[in-house]
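seq as requested:
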Amino acid sequence: MKQKRWTLKQADEAKVAELQQSLRIHPALCRLLVERGIESFDSSKSFFVPELSLLHDPYRMKDMDKAVARIEKAITSNEKMLIYGDYDVDGTTSVSLMTLFFRQFYPNTEYYIPNRYKEGYGISTLGIDYATENDFSLIIALDCGIKSVDKIDYANEKGIDFIICDHHNPGEELPKAIAVLDPKRKDCNYPFKELSGCGVGFKLAQALASHFNLPEKTYLDLLDLVAVSIASDIVSISGENRILEYHGLKKLNENPLPGFKHLMKLIGIEKAYDVSDVVFYIGPRINAAGRMDDATQSVKLLIADSDDLSHANQAMELHNMNKDRQEADKEITAHALEMLQNNPHNESLRTTVVFNDGWHKGVIGIVASRLTEHYYRPTIVLTEHEGKVTGSARSVKGFDLYEAIYECRNHLIQFGGHKFAAGLTMLPEKVTDFKIAFETIVSATITEDQLIPEIEIDAEINFSDINNSFYNLVNRFAPFGPDNMKPVFVTKNVADSGWSKIVKDKHVKFSLRQNGITISGIGFDLAHKFELLKSGAIDVVYQIDENEWQGQKSLQMMVKDIRQSA
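struct tokens:
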């Protein structure tokens, strides 16, 4: 088990002091705000109270006027519109949002989700052919399409117009669509660049509602879909996304769409859902259909308009598919770990590349994430499908995985992705050569620090600082996620009270004391560090959480790591 490196975030002390003067809250909380770029009383107010009125004008997005004009023409001419989206959570929530939005005033629409195994990611020739055969003249593509230059050319030849709503980085050439909505376009001046695919769809709905004088309710009632997409697609929870996530979670907890309601009933969580609950419980169930079978089933549930039994059965199908996905994930992870442990050279490698032709293609991305957590190095999991080897890759913090794969491109048929995650395809006979090339490139470019897991610490506090008032203010930083992670604290020179113990062989139930104040906590997978408690003073890194036992609530530490005090 690798020792983690601790990094205390830096903040401008003068700005922290100035903010503390105006807010009159604990300086550690002012430090958290400054670290997040919140440096004034007014920006703090907007941060803690994310008002819907602060959402940007959708017409600031490049091509929004063209998209609205083309949709108005389609409605006036009673054209058939096809709503097209990817098979993951962001894609299916995007399609569901647009379908439910149009259903309120223009029912002449259908939706289409490409099959992961027959069509692959993004715009497909089969999808365009389906539109041609069924007299669709306009396709609205969501969460995909920004790099589908050849597919849009094909659609244009067929006389089908495209509106693209995407949030991925464009290539050198934009597709020749009627409108390309993507805040990451170089020529797009939209103020917030990190929307999810569903978020871009939401902005289109917002613009259409304004154009047709529809009530705000027509798109605001769909915010729970946006919240699930933001959380599940792991996009930044800052700026406009923070507003959308905040109000979307409120909608999810107070008045969810019927499909969500059915899923939440099966999940059985009694408390209000937060971002992590969406990521670990709702997202995987929606994703399971696309991973194990056909993502159309997820859309059918999400656009359900009632609480009747048939929709409850659809939710149960997704619930059961997720169980199958979990089982496949568990089996493949165990098999992959066994392969690595039996490799005598494994410990000296800087990469993990494993291949088995029988592994389920739909879960190899999850397995790659698990192996990355275990060995903490760039990881690729490969399986075979229809005569080709396909793979899913994951990276470690700070290492550009995409560039490393790019350097091995002569062994590949195709590849795509970004710094931290990628997909790739090769011929079976190229696997060994690719594996050697990838190890060579990574070994030459990765640093020793990048191979050590890092814990980023927001602030140092003492146990005397921890009380209900402090905890309630920390909670107001929610919703948590990328660019606004749940705060991590360090407290130095603490000691075991004598009541700490190992539980279930691998976890530690802590009872730690500093200056007469004792706080309990739980540290998962930290049993190997239990002996440190006997060595005297230690430093502890943790998040603050609330524990409820027999109706009594108390604050506790969720311990990330411990080490001997300097």
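The radius of gyration is 25 Å.
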